[in-house]
Amino acid sequence: MSTAAISLDKVQSCVDALPALPQAVREVMQALQRDDVSVERSVHLIEQDQSLAARTLRVANSAFYGMSGRVGRIGDAVTLLGLRAVSGVLLAVSFTHGLDTLRCSGFSFRSYWRHSMATALAARLLAPRLRLDPDEGFVAGLLHDIGKLVLAAHFPAEGAQALALARSADVSDVEAERATLGLSHAEIGAVLVRHWRFPAEVAQAVEHHHQPTAAADPAARSLAELIEVANAVAHALDLAEDPLEVVPPLDPALWLRLDLSDAAALALLAGVERGVDDMCRALTL
């Protein structure tokens, strides 16, 4: 199989040329970068975009948050979900608008989103056990595989080549990507996350979620460990409904640090499984 290398410079050029996000999403993201972020201003911005407002309310009223039908205002939704989590959801959904018809052999848009949402929900539920912010865990989990979407949408031939190798040689996606492309979806995703100006630890967690020890910053390493576990949980549940699903290896010591009883582990799995269908339906994914 021939090598179809993609450089990070090429990825950066692709990311820089992406269409602008909706104004409300851009302004909320910019507000989050400031220390004096105004929740009221962010709520107002979301309210001005009917599509974003509707999705925000549907997420807040999803069964995962236990508030079905009781959240009718954007302000209440932001309070419940957390502004960073809301911005992550709206940004990811806005970025993927229109990509459900993309053509990359071996790539399933539906499977991608179900796995990403499962990882996000698992990360949110597990974050307190590692003394991490649930909102940040949710966002990092939602975006952890965004590099796969960049490959499928903007480098479909190269992405298909990597997917084919992963299946034919029975190796991980990361191994196949590095063998055929010269870099992995995690590295590609980190370029986009940095472009969107998420906190540095989120970008590092996306970049190193398959190898958390490679993250230089301790906070980023902890977040990457959370995403590594959440990713494994999502794969174990096979909510992406992929017949070739493989659960990545996980350091037993990391799982033990979560201090999950059998009952708590079962509750986690059940919560994620219930939440994925509901959240994807709320976001029309």
Account of the 3D structure:
The chain is mainly alpha-helical and 285 residues long. The chain has a domain at 8-20 and 100-282: Hypothetical protein af1432 (Orthogonal Bundle). 65% of the residues lie in helices and 0% in strands. It is built from 16 helices and no strands. Helix 1 (8-16) runs parallel beside helix 12, helix 2 (23-32) runs antiparallel to helix 3 and helix 13 (200-207) packs across helix 14 (218-237). The protein is globular. The mean pLDDT is 88. InterPro entries: HD/PDEase_dom (IPR003607), HD_domain (IPR006674), HDIG_dom (IPR006675), HDOD (IPR013976), RNase_Y/CdgJ (IPR052340). Pfam families: HDOD. It comes from Ideonella dechloratans. Residues 18-212 form the HDOD domain. Residues 112-236 form the HD domain.
Overall shape: globular
The N- and C-terminal alpha carbons lie at a distance of 34 Å
The CATH class of the domain at 8-20 and 100-282, by name, is Mainly Alpha
**In angstroms, what is the radius of gyration?**
18 Å
Q: Please provide the count of β strands.
A: 0
Helix and strand element order: HHHHHHHHHHHHHHHH
Share in helix: 55-70%
CATH H-level superfamily of the domain at 8-20 and 100-282: Hypothetical protein af1432
Amount of beta strand: under 5%
Poorly predicted runs of 5 or more residues: none
CATH topology of the domain at 8-20 and 100-282: Hypothetical protein af1432
Q: What characterizes the major β-sheet?
A: none
Pfam family, one: HDOD
Protein name: HDOD domain-containing protein
InterPro entries: HD/PDEase_dom, HD_domain, HDIG_dom, HDOD, RNase_Y/CdgJ
